[in-house]
Give the backbone structure.
Amino acid sequence: MARPDLLDPVLGDLDARIRTALDAAELPAADPDLEKPKQPEHGDWATTAALRLAKPAKRNPREVAQLIVDHLDVPDVVEEVSIAGPGFVNFRFAHRYHEELVHRVIEAGAAYGSSRKPQDEQRRVNVEFVSANPTGPLHVGAGRWAATGDAIAALLEATGDEVVREYYVNDAGEQVRIFGESVVLTAAGEDLSDEHYRGAAIAEVAAELREQHGDELFERQPGDDDLVGDDAAAVVHDGQALRDGDTDVGTAAGDARVHPGIAARVGVLGVEAMRQRIEDVLHELGVDFDVWYSEREGLHASGAVEETVAELRERGVAYETDGALFLQTTEHGDDKDRVLVRSDGRPTYFASDCAYLRDKWSRADQLYYLLGADHHGYVARLKAAAACLGLPPERVEIRIGQLVNLLRDGQPVRMSKRAGETIDLDEVVDEVGVDVVRYHFLRQGLDTAVDFDLAVVARQSMDNPVYYVQYAHARINSLLRMADERGFDHGELGDADLSLLDHPAELELLSAMAQLPVIVAEAAELRATQRLARYAEELAGTFHRFYTECRILAPADATEEERAAAEELGRARYWLAVAAKQVLANALGLLRVGAPERM
RNA sequence: GCCCCCGUAGCUCAGUGGAUAGAGCACCGGCCUCCGGAGCCGGAUGCGUAGGUUCGAUUCCUACCGGGGGUGCCA
C-alpha cells in the first residue's frame, strides 16, 4: 500500500508506529503494508510485515510478529492486537474509528478516496490512448482504450498527479493522400481499389466537404502542382517528388484518376473531418482529450522530425547504410535496428514516433501509452527509441491491452472490409448506452480479451453488474427522498449517535467504506481499473445487505411509540446511508460511470 | 519461424508470494402487512500438466499441452 498517511489519518498513524516498532525491535525496515483481512473476525486491518521480514531477519514469521507486537506502541484507537495464521498481525479498531469514518466521508464529499502527494512527488503524466488513425470511424475496440485510458487518467489524478489526456492524430504520410483519393473517388461515385478506405463514414465526409467547400474542392487548383509551402506539402513526407510536377509520389504511384495534389489537399481536410467525428463519439462516451496532437503540424510542419533526426545523429546512436539512416535500437533490446530515414530521403513513421517522444518529454515527466495488442510489436522499438533519446526507461510506460471481440448472441459480428457492414463504436454506444459500454470494459483486466456481446450486454440484469452498483446508489437516494417525504427528522450529522451502529451488516458496510482510499491508490499504482470496479460491486453488495437487514424509517403504519423508539437508531443509519451513497458515487465517478438518482 | 496474452466453479471473470481461492450468470430452495424484489439468505463443483525457487506458489521461473492474437517488407 502506498503511503497510508496520505489515505487515512488513523492508518497513517498505525503505519508510523509499526515502523517505529520494527526499528525498536532491531528488525529491518519494511513497508508495513496494511490490508483488510479476508475474514471479518480477524479484525479491521492487518499487516503482513512479519511474514515478509522473516527471511531478512532469519527468524520464523510468528516470532517476528511477536517482536513487532512486543515493541508496538498501540494507539488508543486499536482495541485488540493479535497474531494469527502464519504471522499476520491483526488489529481490531474501536468503534470510534467507524464513527469517525462517517464524518470523514461526509466532510470530504467527492474528494473522499482521493489523496494528494507532497509537491516534490507529483508528476506531470502524459497519458496517450486511442490514437486510432483518422481514416475511418472508431470501432468497438477503441471504446475499450477510451474507457480504460480515461479511467486510468482519473485514477492518477485521484492520487495526486497532474494528467494530460492525449490523442495522437496520424494526419501525415501516404495514408492521408490515399484517404484523399478515397474521398474524391467516393464523391465522384467512382469505384475504389483495394488500398482505398471505404464505408458510410467516408461518403458522409465527402458530402460534408462538398457542402462546405463546393464542387471545386475536388477539381484541379493552381496550387496543386506546387505543394511547397502549403499545408499539404507535409502530407507527403518530403514533398520532393511533387516539386517537379511529377505525379509519382514516393514508392506508391497513387491512383491515376486523382491528381496527387488534389488528393493531398482533400486528404488533409477529410482527415480533419473524420477526426472531428471521432472527437464527437468519444465525447458521447464521456471521454474528452486535453490534447489532439497533430503529427502533420506538430512534428512535420514544425520541423521537429528533422530536429529529432539531427539530435539522434549527434548522439551517435544513428548510422547510415545503403543511403538509409538507421537508429541503433538493438542496443536497447529491440530485435533489429529501425530505419529513421529512407534512402529516398523520406522519414519513416518511426521517425515521427521518435520526434513525438521527444516532444512529449518536453511537456511531461512520465509518459504512459495504452496500446492494443495489435501494436505489441511497437513496445520494444518505442522503449529503445526512448533510450536512444536519453529518456529514463522507467518513465516511459507502455501497456498492452488485449483486443475486443464483438459478438451478438455468441456469434462474432464479422468486420466486412466491403462497404458499411461493420458495427462502429457510435452504434454500439447508441444501442446499449454509455455506462454499460464503459463499465463492461473497466471491470476486466487489460490482459484479458473481452467479449462484447451486444445481446448479453443489453440485458438490464446482473449480466450487467453496472446496474447492480447503480441500483444501490439509486436505492439510497430513494431512501433519503422517502425520509424527507415522510418528514423523518434526521437532524444534523453531529447529533446522530453513531455508536448505535453495531449490527454486523452495518459494521461490514463501514468497513467496506473505509477501504476506498486504499483501493484507489492500488488501482492507480497498478493501472488496474477492474480493482475499483470490483470494489464498487462489493460495496454495493454490503449496502444491499445492510438495507435488507436494517430499517431506517419506521414502517408507515407504525405507532407513535414504535416510531419514537426507532428514531435514534434510524438517525444513525440515515447518516450511514448518506455516507455510503457518497462512497458509491465516488467510486463510480472515478470510473466515469454515472451514479443515477433513480433508475 | 519469432513475439505477446490467456488457461481459476458448468459459463463469464476477480484474486500485485501468505489466513478457509471469491463474485455474477445458470440450477435448486427460502425471504416482502414494512424505506425500490434491478434486492436479500441458503445450497454443489475449481487453480491445464510436470518440474523448480520459497518457511509458504493460483501468483515467480522452466518445459509441455490447450486457446486467442500479433508480426515477417527501409509500412
Summary: The two ends of chain A are 36 Å apart (CA to CA).
